[in-house]
Description:
Helix 2 (about 10-35) runs parallel beside helix 6 (about 90-110) and helix 2 packs antiparallel against helix 9. The chain is built from ten helices and no strands. By secondary structure, it is an all-alpha fold. It has a single domain, classed as Vanadium-containing Chloroperoxidase, domain 2 (Orthogonal Bundle), CATH 1.10.606.
Amino acid sequence: MVGGWxxxxxxxxxxxxxAVFVLLGWVVGDLWTSVVGSVDLNAVRDVAxxxxxxxxxxxxAITWAGSAFLLVPFALIACLAFAQAGLRREALAIxxxxxxxxxxxxxxxxxxSRPRPPVEHLQAxxxxxxxxxxxxxxxxxxxxxVFAMPAxxxxxxxxxxxxxxxxxxxxxxAASRVYLGVHYPSDVIVGMLLGTGWxxxxxxxxxxxESVSEGSQAR
Length: 219
């Protein structure tokens, strides 16, 4: 009975999934930081050597697309819009995608505790480096919007265009974090994988039947 409930109930699957994503992030972070040489650091230093005033101003604006200060209000607005359209499942998916991504990145940061790159930081930061919170959050939020679009009546073509735009935004955020000197390339790569994977998982969980017991009763 308990096993069936864990498999069939969306809330249980989401909690278990959250734990698995944190565990995966922790394992990958520990493995990577224990075997990596100077490749990550050399990449950060190479990028820092190419900084210009104009480019820095542009990157500081771009990086906001992954900030929780911007994404949380955006997620609430999107949630209300989808809920008012009768798409409560999609509204919930957006909130859970962003909220879960924030938790995943924060917990993995605590577990891995990777120091920030030893270069000049062009943005004030706190906490450890792995994974990139901005990139994790951006991936989860922008792709959760894409996953919700078909239910809102978007055509496959429009959804594909939105997916490309979301990918460009996420890549821009990821690059901005390395440029600003606050993350290694591996931090943002794993952040993209965690955020996108989590948003996909949330969408799948909420699309599946809510209870196996309902099917059993029908039989």
